[in-house]
Write a structure and sequence with these properties.
By secondary structure, the chain is mainly beta. 4% of the residues lie in helices and 37% in strands. Among the domains are: 177 residues, Sandwich (Jelly Rolls), CATH 2.60.120.200; 155 residues, Jelly Rolls; 51 residues, Laminin (Ribbon); 187 residues, Jelly Rolls, CATH 2.60.120.200. This is Basement membrane-specific heparan sulfate proteoglycan core protein.
């Protein structure tokens, strides 16, 4: 559309200049930028230093922009200028800066200039309210289109207010826009009548002003409010036609109307109501001129057939063929005023409101930590971190990135190519999905198949509201509440609810919510719960949230905010099924794929081993292999392929095995003959193998209240009452019948009575770690190369393997650290020296339960990560600091408190084996070097054959009676 813009303004209100006012924050700049807000280039780029100049990146190279008193490749040569009376601007990097004006209410600047080029638009003067490149408050003087042009903007869009007599006149539409009409208007009416839009094409003579032509139109479009309904009147060459909206406008609230008229039909839609269509033949386009567009009234008194009723209210925005129109850049009557929409804005989280040509008449300027139309949700930025495509959530003094389904990594920096997805798993309190807002709640249906894993805690399934106000009184939700599925609806004045029968965890349910003009129905499998609609329908103003909320969004107190826990699949809205593989149709966070898993329950075979004695004797054991295969289908939250889970089933009537008594002090090497099974009778039952990781049990009589009551503290204590774990372990009750022994370092077994030296290979279970003195890995100078080497194997995708940070009790946030760990199956090496962390990631996944060799180097700011035979991954920390100031001890396999001790960089400890840890070429004796640790054990995969035979003999003594 041929809108014009006038740069010269008559009277402009003043605004604050960009004099710095500190508001409780300070910008820490990367080395390449400088200034109070890091708004300009510094003297550093491409590892070059321009001294007193500015370093500019030019493609793959660099260029120093020198001040008047310096020259040279790096501005290193001082220049003594003679007396200067004139300054020459000779390149695209020429500039001068002066202190900010004290006030623009009383401001004058003068200059003598001699331009050498006026063909190209060039800057003469610029000042703004801030350094935001999108700043709306600015003043400039420029050479534009061969003239010197002054331009001023106060930052606010003009949002016209009408009192029944005013008209806003906009430029004519193009022929294409007029004959293929697509206009959207947002308005807030004070009454139920008035013209809001009109334009026409009239026969004309050459040279006539289209605004002054009074001949009858041959094409016209007009929209008006008539007794609450919107009437669209048009003539495309065949006479006047009209269509009427079936729904009415809502006075004193924002409404949106869309008008479409093309070669085949006319369409009118008001808000989210049904679209009204009317077919017609192709438009008759005759010779003539397109007249202006009139908003808010009628400027054609020559036609007595027309109504002249003016509009009362506000028109906040207009788009033509999808492009917004600046309502403040056009001609208007002097007494027209702008509406202050910010008086009733919903800008959240300390954001700033600005009156604007938007559907609600304002826009919110968000802090960097928040995003969304109303700054209602967390953005990708917090704690000076960037979560890329994810959401950055503050967790106490640290941070956590909530990644979408198609990204992973500590900062959501690693793209994920998902296989075909048919089900989504919600696994944490930050899990969520969002879908576009429903068009209408008068005719709305959503269905989903879901399998809840927890129904004890109140959890969200579905939520939509009229706006993002956490106190919003108009909202609709479906939740798991008090063990049932509950539908809730509030229209701002009253609330209604539908509650299902109780549901159970681990069961698949088909849930369908259906609303029409008169009835709301909730279907749970074959059960239907129905209620007649008695409350008013509200216009949806938020996205449709499924399974949870993005961080930052709050909801009313009567709506559960905790995310759903379980799997959801086959979501369908108004008959259209959501394609989980097309992630352009929804947003998500902290969700994963749910896959189907076969659970096979066989009976294990007991294969006992005898310990060596001076005279080896053999006792024959009779065993029977009974394989009971019972297949069930279960959904689990995982990103892995289909796996088979085997659970052990024990026959309670099986006879207890008779074990050979052995002197446990004997350590001589003898070959041990394994027991040979003999044929078994039908009555004989399988004997179950007990590994060192199994939990001992406590027999409870039927008279014991702990056998029937819940897990009270007394019952838990009873599990450990007569089953102490000896001097080398601590009894930890699991429930009233099971406990486990948490062993001290170098001890193992169900009773922690086996001494197991670790030496060069250690096994970690996610709750284990070894602590090594910081003296073993000193950081004395930034010039010395530091090398860490080790082997590892794991099947787990996440976990910290090697960590060195600060002293106990000191926060690691913002401090130096040295970290090696797994994230989503890849090895991550990172370190912080004070100016910005370096990060290196392995090319392939390493959670394949195979042995991998790792070599890590750091020298100053540069780092190298090499895994197996992969290409080296190199990295460089930001800033100029090159010394690692991490004086805390070294932790291998884990840390005592993952979130606290790593500042949120890791979420889990390592599970697997680590061997041959070498610091600067010296392999550590993990047992002799460790100063502390917990639950670390030797790793069977990396012990010598002799140690394996000794270990094998000790296992003969580990069997206990069941």
């Amino acid at each position: 559309m041929g809108w014009t813009h006038k740069s010269w303004h008559s009277a402009s209100p003043s605004f604050l200049s960009f004099t710095l006012v500190f508001q409780g924050y300070k910008c820490i700049c990367p080395i390449e930028f400088a200034g109070d807000y890091c708004e300009r280039r510094s003297a550093h780029c491409k590892e070059e230093d321009c001294n007193s100049g500015i370093c500019e990146e030019v493609g793959d190279t660099w260029h120093c922009v020198c001040p008047l008193n310096a020259t040279g490749l790096r501005c290193e040569i001082p220049v003594e200028q003679p007396s200067i009376s004139s300054i020459g601007f000779k390149s695209n990097t020429s500039f001068m800066t002066m202190p900010s004006p004290k006030s623009l209410d009383h401001f004058q600047i003068s200059m003598n200039l001699k331009p050498e080029d006026v063909e190209r638009n060039r800057m003469l003067l610029y000042v703004a309210s801030d350094y935001d490149p999108e700043s709306k408050k600015h003043m400039s003087v420029s050479v534009m289109d061969g003239s010197i042009v002054y331009s001023y903007s106060d930052g606010e869009d003009f949002v016209p207010t009408f009192f029944g007599q005013e008209t806003l006149i906009l430029p004519s539409m193009t022929d294409e826009q007029l004959t293929n009409l697509d206009v959207t208007l947002s308005f807030n009416p004070d009454g139920n009548d008035g013209v809001i839009f009109e334009t026409a094409r009239r026969p004309s003579l050459p040279g006539e002003d289209p605004a002054l032509i009074s001949r009858p139109p041959n094409i016209e479009h007009r929209a008006r409010i008539d007794h609450g309904a919107v009437v669209y009147e048009y003539d495309i060459g065949y006479g006047k036609e009209s269509i009427v909206s079936p729904n009415n406008v809502t006075p004193h609230e924002w409404n949106t109307v869309r008008l479409i008229n093309n070669d085949t039909k006319a369409v009118l839609q008001l808000n989210s109501g049904p679209a009204t269509e009317k077919s017609h033949p192709p438009i008759r386009f005759e010779q003539g001129s397109n007249g202006p567009v009139f908003l808010g009234g009628l400027r054609d008194p020559t036609d007595p057939d027309r109504t002249h009723q003016g509009y009362r209210g506000v028109i906040s925005s207009m788009t033509v063929s999808g492009k917004p129109v600046d309502l403040g850049s056009v001609e208007r009557q002097p007494d027209m005023i702008s509406h202050d929409s910010c008086k009733h804005s919903l800008c959240l989280h300390s954001s700033r409101c600005r009156n604007a040509n938007t559907p609600k008449g304002y826009m919110c300027i968000c802090l960097i930590e928040f995003a969304g139309e109303y700054c209602e949700r967390r953005s990708a930025h917090c704690k000076e971190e960037d979560c890329n495509s994810g959401i950055c959530e503050e967790v106490g003094d640290t941070w956590h990135c909530v990644c979408p389904l198609n990204a992973t990594g500590l900062r959501c920096e690693i793209p994920v190519e998902q296989p075909s997805i048919s089900s989504i798993g919600f696994k944490s309190d930050t899990s969520f999905m969002t879908m576009p807002s429903p068009k209408s709640l008068d005719h709305f249906q959503i269905s989903m198949n879901l399998k809840p894993e927890d129904v004890e805690r109140n959890r969200m399934l579905l939520y939509v509201a009229s706006d993002y106000d956490p106190e919003s009184k108009k909202h609709m939700s479906v939740s798991v509440m008090d063990g049932s599925i509950v539908y809730s609806y509030s229209d701002g004045e009253d609330r209604e609810e539908i509650r299902s029968a109780p549901v159970e965890p681990g069961v698949v349910y088909t849930v369908v919510l259906s609303r029409n003009d008169s009835t709301t129905s909730l279907f749970i499998n074959d059960q239907m719960f129905e209620k007649k609609n008695e409350l008013k329908t509200f216009e949806p103003g938020t996205e449709l949230f499924v399974g949870g909320l993005p961080p930052g969004i709050d909801v009313p107190e009567d709506v559960p905010a905790t995310s759903f826990f379980g799997c959801i699949n086959e979501i369908s809205v108004d008959g259209t099924e959501l394609d989980f593989n097309d992630q352009s149709t929804f947003n998500s966070g902290d969700v994963s794929q749910c896959v189907m898993v076969e659970e096979v329950f066989p009976t294990k075979v007991f294969t006992p081993e005898l310990p060596p004695t001076t005279e080896v004797t053999t006792t024959k054991f009779t065993t029977t292999e009974v394989t009971t295969t019972e297949v069930t289908t279960t959904e689990v939250t995982t990103t892995e392929e289909v796996i088979h889970v085997y659970n052990t089933v024990k026959d309670v009537d099986a006879p207890e095995p008779i074990l050979q008594k052995v002197d446990e002090s004997e350590e001589e090497e003898h070959e041990v003959q394994e027991p040979t099974p003999t044929p078994a009778s039908e009555e004989e039952s399988p004997i179950e193998e007990i590994s060192s990781d199994q939990m001992p049990t406590v027999e409870l009589s039927t008279d014991d209240p702990c056998a029937t009551e819940g897990l009270g503290e007394a019952c838990l204590d009873k599990a450990c009452l007569d089953n102490e774990c000896g001097p080398n372990g601590e009894c930890v009750p699991v429930n009233q019948t099971y406990y486990r022994c948490q062993c001290n370092l170098y001890y193992d077994g169900p009773r922690c009575d086996l001494f197991k030296p670790i030496e060069r290979a250690a096994k970690f279970d996610g709750d284990a770690f070894l602590e090594i003195s910081a003296d073993e890995f000193p950081h004395l100078t930034s010039e010395k190369k530091e090398v860490v080497e080790f082997k590892f194997k794991t099947s787990e995708p996440d976990g910290v393997i090697f960590w060195q940070g600060q002293q106990p009790g000191a926060s690691v946030v913002g401090e130096d650290y040295f970290s090696v760990g797994l994230s989503e199956g890849r090895l991550h090496f990172s370190y912080e020296l004070g100016g910005g962390a370096a990060h290196m990631v392995s090319q392939t996944r390493v959670d394949d339960d195979k042995e991998h060799y790792v070599r890590i180097e750091r020298q100053g700011r540069r780092g190298i990560l090499k895994v197996d035979n992969e290409l080296e991954q190199s990295g460089l920390s930001s800033g100029i600091l090159a010394m690692l100031n991490a004086d805390g001890n070294i932790f291998i396999g884990g840390v005592p408190d993952v979130y606290r001790d790593t500042g949120g960089l890791h979420s889990k400890n390592f599970i697997g084996c680590v061997a041959d840890v070498a610091l600067n070429g010296e392999i550590l004796d993990l047992m002799g070097t460790a100063i502390d640790g917990k639950n670390a054990r030797p790793c069977d995969e990396w012990i010598s054959p002799r140690r394996r035979r000794l270990k094998h003999r000790r296992r003969h003594r580990d069997w206990i009676l069941l």
